[in-house]
Amino acid sequence: MTATHLTDAAIQEYAMGLAPQHAAHIDGCPACRAKAQMYREMVAGIQAQPAPVFDFDVSAAVLAHLPAPRRTALPRLLYVALTAILLVSGAALYIFRADVVAVFSGAASMMTWVMVTSLLTILIFQGLDLLKTYRKKMREMLQHSSPATV
Ligand SMILES: [Zn+2]
């Protein structure tokens, strides 16, 4: 009988073959020998485990959860809408050109330029605000649709 037993860490090192200096104690101590045998079986069992292998395609699963790449250019739908608006307004101006000329020739030229400038300014600010709102909503949608942001 030995007064002080080996620590669990020392017995584990011996069981893994890392601490041969404890062989004398383990040979003479049934309690430590039993623990060493248990750790040897545990290590052998762990080493006998097959390496973990996924039974599905990991890359496809990861790619499915990645957010779509962001586009900096305007989306195609906006270009189509702008083109349609320009075509319709151009056609209307062409069809009603006689009336348009009559309206603007009757008014004072200074007043006409003030009206045109005001109209263009309002249209530009409205368009910019529309674009800003659209981008903000698209950003929110992309953030909510992505499962996890890293
Ligand atoms: Zn012992």
Automatic annotation (TrEMBL):
It comes from the Bacteria. The keyword Membrane applies. The chain crosses the membrane at residues 77-96, 108-131. Keywords: Membrane, Transmembrane, Transmembrane helix. This is Zinc-finger domain-containing protein. It comes from Chitinophaga lutea.
